[in-house]
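Page 42, continued from yesterday. The earlier attempt failed because a stray header line got pasted into the input along with the sequence. Redoing it now with the clean sequence only.
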Amino acid sequence: MLLKISHLTKYRFDQPVHYALQQLRLMPRSGVGQNVNRWDVTVDGGVKELEFDDQFNNHAMLVNIDPGQTEISITCEGEVETTDLHGIIGQNYGFAPLWFFLRSTPLTQAGSGVQKLIKQIGRDSYDTEVTMMHALSRLIGEIVPYQTGETHSETTAEEALAAHNGVCQDHAHIFISTVREMGFPARYVSGYLMMNDRIDQEATHAWAEAYIPDIGWVGFDVSNGISPDDRYIRVATGLDYKDAAPISGLSIGNGTGSMGESMDVSIQVQQQ
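This time it went through. Structure tokens are written below.
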């Protein structure tokens, strides 16, 4: 499937910027299941300083915002050809070893909620690990229905479980926390999803991947109850959201202190 993506992010600051540096993870790579035919990043109000590959093999870019600006726009446009592999990425390691993806983070720290999930799922009741993880994905979706506006970027897996609602980021964190607690390496994935009922979107998408022996990395999108197909584009991976966030950074106004900012996102994903 040939997908066309247009992604505009606008940051507005409550005072002129003295110094601001943004790290972008908005550049998909060609690899298993996808080939990037074209991808352009344009910055209005800042300068591209540096591009590099991080420890997760994400392609990252540092953008320095022009001093005195109160707004910066980052536009990504491109075309990516995808193949439906039923979520199977396989033996794809990147720079980080498998054991690294067993590490817990503050956002994915397992607690009583995750332990309860493990008991509910009954790991030994399934003939394969893939079947068990699909059952886990369904259970998380039932316990934590998709609901916007109730959680935020700092919400942990345990907090989302306790709140009984969340978004794709929360679903991914809960799934990752649970399978790591069961001994499987797991990672967070951010990217794009072509939706069947709309072109315009207000955010990127997120899902999880677990490493299953003899198969490799397999994706699970809890929010939609499936493994990623050819409507998905992988952009960045990490231990949790913070490692794969599309944009992160620091801004300082009038010489000292962090400053307030707002962000507007407009995304279009459509088949060519």
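Notes: The first strand starts at residue 2 and ends at 13.
Reminder to self: strip header lines before submitting.
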